Sequence to fold (139 residues):
Amino acid sequence: MMLKEMRVNAESSQLLNLASFAAVAAKEAGFDHKQTWRIELAVDEACANIIEHAYKGKNGGLITLKIAIEPNKWMQIVVEDQGNGFDPSKIPSVLPVTSLENTRVGGMGVHIIRAIMDEVKFEFKIPYVGNRLTMIKKV
Fold:
């Protein structure tokens, strides 16, 4: 098993670095181009949500990205922050889009993550950690 870790300031300028870090690991795990792009998208959505909602766009917070891979078997991505938590059960079901005018921008991050990953687990207020999102994708 291979382990990788990255810690950055919770700033939108770091989103590309975080997603690229995950993409490199996904390739090392044996995912094809399409699945690697999806994993990159899930990490981008998770980290963007942390910046926007957990830290409310204020500087000073950190995002830690921990990745474990078992080549050609699975990849586990853990994202940690010390911002405000939320209740994922309160996120409404995705409603069918009837027109672009009726579609609001944003609010799809958790749905995208759940659609891409095989397993998704949210944990909040963990002592000495804060919040943790664990995502698992099987090759």
Observations:
- The longest strand covers residues 62-70.
- The longest helix spans residues 33-54.
